[in-house]
Amino acid sequence: MSPSRHARLLSHLTRSALVCGIALYTISPRGSLGDDALQLAAAPAKAEVEPAASLRLTFEHDVQPILTAAGCNAGACHGKQRGQNGFQLSLLGFDADFDYAAIVQEAQGRRVFPAAPQNSLLLRKAAADMPHGGGRRLDPAGPLYAVVRRWIAAGMPRRAADDPTLEGITLDRAEHVLVPGEQRPLRVTARFSDGSTRDVTGVTAFQSNEPAIVAVDEAGVIRAGDLAGEATVMARYMGEIATCATMIPLAGDVDRAIYDALPRWNFIDELVWNKLAQLGITPSPAVDDSTFLRRAYLDVIGRLPSADEARTFLADGDPDKRARLVDHLLERSEYADHWANKWVDLLRPNPYRVGIKATLSLDAWLRDAFRQNMPYDQMVRRLVTAEGSTWRNGAATLFRDRRQPDEIATMVSQLFLGVRLECAKCHHHPFEVWGQDDFYGLAAYFARVGRKGTGLSPPISGGEEIVLTVPSGTVKHGRTGEPVEPKPLFGQTPPCGPDEDPRDVLVDWMVADEEGYFAQVAANRIWAAIMGRGLVDPVDDLRATNPPTNAPLLEALAGELRRVEYDQKKLIRTIMASYVYQLSSLPGERNSADTRNYSRHYRQRLRAEVLLDAVCDVTGVPESFDAMPPDARAVELWTTRIGSLFLDAFGRPDPNQDPPCERIADSTVVQTLHMMNAPRIHEKVVSDSGRAAELATSERAPAEIAEELYLAAYARYPTDDERAAIVPLFGEDSASRRQATEDLMWALLNTPEFLFKD
Amino acid sequence: MSRYRNCEGVTRRNCLQLGLGMLGGSGMAQLLRMRAQASESAASSRPASCILIWMDGGPSHFETFDPKPEAPEEIRGELGTLATRIPGVHFSEHMPKLAAMTDKLAVIRSVRHDQGNHGAGNHYMMTGAPPRIPVGCGAFVSFHPSMGSVAAHELGAPEGLPAYFSMPSMSRSGGPNFLGAKYAPFVVGGDPNKDDFRVRDVALPSELSDERFLGRRDLRGVVDRFVRIADEAAADPAVALDEYYRQSYDLVTSPEAQRAFDITLESEAVRDSYGRNSFGQRALLARRLVEAGVPFVTLYDGGWDHHSEIFPAMRKRLPVFEGGIAALIEDLQQRGLLDSTLVVALGEFGRTPKISTLSGRNSPGRDHWANAMSILFAGCGTPGGQVVGATDRKGYAACERILSPENFASTVYRKLGIDPDKIYYTPNGRPVHLVSNPEPIAELMG
After folding, report:
1. Residues 617-676 of A with CB under 8 A from B
2. Is residue B198 part of a domain?
3. Number of neighbours of residue A284 by Cβ within 10 angstroms
4. Which of A100, A270, B324, B337 is the most buried (most CB within 10 A)?
5. Of the candidates B202, B235, B430, which has its C-beta nearest A677's C-beta?
6. Which residue in B has a C-alpha nearest to residue A736's C-alpha?
7. Residues of A in Cβ contact (< 8 Å) with B119
8. Distance in Å, alpha carbon of A405 to nearest chain B alpha carbon
9. Rounded-to-5 percentages of helix, strand, coil across chain B
């Protein structure tokens, strides 16, 4: 342990003693407190000075923070589910009763030995005086060790019922603007129910979400790296969390007039420019018509514009044509399948578990919801309160798949509130305020979900099940075993009568959206799908320790979604009507490192289904899927049991995996090999009924063939250079024309300009 | 059929060499050459690989590595036994080749667990972790990364090659779970015993000439005008894609790389020794992949779920199965690869001691039984000539040196140089031990 750590701990102890109005150590006052502390740390013998007899150490206030600070109760050590080598503590000390019993009562009392505290197993292991897998966690000469030793000697006292309780912690500042290389110490203060405070910096754990930008050490000193950027630093003390935002603006001044001159087409632009100005970043210019066209098609309907559609748009002289295009696309039928697909990713159950028919009915339900443009709040209400047959109401399949209140509660809170509660099922959430009471309180809204009919019988599970609300049912607390009343995560809900469905009460509370979570997570999902990265990332993980990159923008988007009464198309239109949406992906001087503030568009590889459909469209040869009608598109597939090597190579969520919602955006060698050589793709390129054959046998000149293929794959005309390089490849005879057309098609399909949305 | 159907004769090879020269020297080719040289000079310095033979369905321990000839008739079954080179140890009478090479083998007879259905048993043995919730027989579940995905993650692959192969299909829980799809197995379907077999995507479509492929490559260079963002901080995915295309070209144009996939380059004698059947030829392909530096290959062998007709089925299957494995081990040894290649064969569980005839079935079989199972180990420093643990006299339960799937998985990881006590973090930030009990089976560690 570093001397500074000793000093800080000592200062912590001293302060706590001062809070209690007693002297901690009988040290002679000489110089400042800090000097004394340092001296004591440097000379361990002196730290052995006996404390005042009246000082009462307690397990909760003094020992548990040390167990956490020393890492004893970490998830990888004694805090894991079955403990480590027979010694188990609650994760990060959330359960004082459990930990006290483990230390004082278990193992025949060998862990503590008040008559000779230094012989306690707890201390001998922690000091590595005995073999200890975790090594030395406490320095026997240090003050942390001394506190535990004195606590044991005092007979292991616990907190008295009327002692003040910890109410929260505070960081001395909420924001830090730093220059590269700058260091700054943080200070953490704990607040107690009697109004007292304590400096707990020395026994607080710190973490940065972007250590490369701003790192934080165990002493709570933040250190700016070399790069401009932002990071959030979290402090955690006994289940309480505090965060501060840190920022390193880009070096050099930017003339304010540059920002003032930027277009402001709607509120999005203003809020993005504000953030860029803070960071000293300047945005990229807007894209040309071709890039906009391809981007908009892919975003709204998940397909490429046809060659003819591209020609028409590019020839259109109307200055308003981009906005008109977006309006037109939102009315196209492909919109529903493309956007429903994003929800199918999240909700699709394992067909081996719930059965094929229930899987199909949920899939159809979601597509129908998007076809009708069902307002988002209504969609959520119908899902969360679903009743009836899993064969007739696809939404009810959720309750066939998730059978326990705790399973459905975690899903509902993550998807619709952006709150990840699953940690809190078994232990206090390590990065958040949520605990087991919150978890079981939310689960209790689902206690009265009943089922009739045929339950699960994997792997076929073919039966029909009816979901309904039954008059009674309870959820028991995971730790205490006591029945738990429904309780929302914050605020209150009205009591629920026996004739009412508690799920209705829950959805009323969710949609009322006091804290803004409901609309924010929905708006963030839509923003992320279009802009390539969520304002909060991952999109459904809203918490203080994972703040949005632009909080005012997220709030404004959420407000807009509420204003348009959760009409998702309207929010999509608003986002796409911003100038920010039209920015080029290519950076300028002052934004190449920006990957989160939308100063440029972020390139995305096309999703597996979109890409496969694009390959089919460009080659003119549809895919043939099992269990689907002829000419079905990949985006219409209703189960991952429909085999496709292409979709597997490019990644699709597999509901057999838990968690299932994995969508990889990466490229891999497997993917590039597949695009280059896969027999199915080769067949499409050389098919006699495909586009290459049709073009080659037509009357078109080589330049026209190239133009057609460029428009179909890239939504742009070839440049003069490209034409000049391509035309000579075409010979006079038909075989040569055919081969040149096929080769050009293959080459276009194998470029990033095809594989990415730019 | 020509032996060169994948290569279209000499023209192709000349052309590919030309292509190789045009690439200005292939990293892949050099790497493979270096690996080949390294393996000749110092076999033990080769990085470790694993060939996992998955006997899907749960093979009977009675009819394979743990026969009970002294047990009553309703337990011992119809098959006889054969003495091995280990005094007192017998195998099934239909495994003469393995019985004759037990000096190279170690058999574990005492792994047991508590998951009696296929979905759960597969998960436990493929990942070393029990399923988190009860799952059914038909379940395809994954709560934890499979050994193959972990090996891919930890050990990487020779450039351009996938790190984890599964042939001819993926085993149920053989996926990557939270490690991400990048570490999913590269599935090579098809039957390598057929003349038209080719490893998907790594070879050019058969009617495409080399000249034409190289022409396409040049043409791609012409049409690829997409501007790359040079600044690394921009994390341009198009830049990463370039690297994957480079590796793919290397793989397709490098004769050495192509050879890794081409079992037709083996002599007829070698091909015959593995058995002219799909399992044997797949085992041969696995050896070639390991030779090329692939760290993990799963050979999925279905149909070991013998609820009925167990005896005729075993008589038919065992020779194919043991012939392929015996040839694989011999071949690895002759090439100096056995010291760095772990071969394991197992299924989900063992089978019931009492022979039963389920309702609706006409002939006897054995049912699922997780209280005992046998696992075959060879190579990678595994001391041969030993049997670890034992079941009771009637084969009901492991009774000596009782071991868990965790011990099994930890042994595989240790042999591959991976610490089974390693902690991974899931995307949610939850710490997960690779194996909850990181104790390998000491007898196998040498």
Report:
1. 645, 648, 651, 654, 656-659, 662, 664-674, 676
2. no
3. 19
4. B324
5. B202
6. B212
7. 458-459
8. 15
9. 40, 15, 45
Are B421 and B322 in the same domain?
A: yes
Residues B184 and B58 in one domain: yes
Q: Tell which of B143, B178, B201 to mutate to test the A interface (max A CBs under 10 Å).
A: B201
Digits of tens for pLDDT over chain B (446 positions)? 332 222 222 233 333 333 333 333 344 444 444 444 444 444 457 899 999 999 999 999 999 999 999 999 999 999 999 999 999 999 999 999 999 999 999 999 999 999 999 989 999 999 999 988 777 776 677 889 999 999 999 999 887 788 999 999 888 899 888 888 788 898 888 899 999 898 889 888 888 999 999 999 999 999 999 999 998 888 899 998 998 898 899 888 888 778 888 999 999 999 999 999 999 999 999 999 999 999 999 999 999 999 999 999 999 999 999 999 999 999 999 999 999 999 999 999 999 999 999 888 889 999 999 999 999 999 999 999 999 999 999 999 999 999 999 999 999 999 999 999 999 988 777 788 999 999 999 999 98
Which CATH class, in words, describes the domain spanning A166-248?
mainly beta
Measured in residues, chain B has a length of 446
Flag if A458 and B138 touch (Cβ within 8 Å). yes
CA–CA separation, A24 and A15 (whole Å): 9
Q: What is the number of domains present in chain B?
A: 2
**How many whole angstroms from its chain centre is CA A593?**
21
A183: which 2 tokens?
A: 């260091």
Are residues A352 and B241, on separate chains, in Cβ contact within 8 Å?
no
Which one of B117, B122, B140 makes the best mutation probe of the A interface by having the most chain A beta carbons within 10 Å?
Answer: B140
Do residues A373 and A344 touch, judged by C-beta distance below 8 A?
no
- Give the residue ranges of DSSP H helices in A492-550: 502-512, 517-531
On whether any CB of chain A is under 8 Å from the CB of B187, the answer is yes
The B residues from 128 to 147 touching A (CB cutoff 8 Å) are 132, 135-143
- Token pair 């930027």: residue: A262
The CA-based diameter of chain B, rounded to the nearest angstrom, is: 77
Kind of pairing between the strands at A388-389 and A240-248 = unpaired
**Reduced to 3 states, what is the DSSP secondary structure of residue B218?**
helix
In a domain, B199, yes or no: no
Chain A CB contacts of B216 below 8 Å:
743, 746-747
Q: Is residue B141 within 8 Å of B162, Cβ to Cβ?
A: no
Residue A413: both structure tokens together? 């809170």
How many other β-carbons are positioned within 10 Å of the β-carbon of residue A655?
26
Q: Are B103 and B11 part of one and the same domain?
A: no
Residues B58 and B32 in one domain: no
Residue showing tokens 């339950």: A455
Are B237 and B145 in a shared domain? no
The pair of structure tokens assigned to B4 is 């060169």
Instruction: Kindly report, as residue ranges, where domains of CATH 2.60.40.10 are found in chain A.
Output: 166-248
- Rounded to whole angstroms, the Cα distance separating A359 from A351 reads 6
Residues 6 or more apart whose CB falls under 8 angstroms from that of A493 comprise: A486, A487, A505, A506, A508, A509
Residue A396 DSSP code: G
Give the structural domain span for B90: 46-193+276-445
Contacts of B241 in chain A (CB under 8 A): 667, 672, 752, 755-756
Residues from chain B contacting residue A460 (CB–CB below 8 Å): 138
Place of tokens 């299924």: B347
Six token digits for residue A143: 């003050």
Distance from CA of B321 to the nearest CA of A (A): 28
Question: What are the percentages of helix, strand and coil residues in chain A, rounded to 5?
Answer: 45, 10, 45
Q: Dig out the tokens for B100 from the structure.
A: 């004759």
In a domain, residue B270? The reply is: no
Tell me, what DSSP letter sits at residue B111?
A: E
Please tell me whether residues B115 and B217 are part of one structural domain: no
Q: Do B423 and A668 touch (CB under 8 A)?
A: no
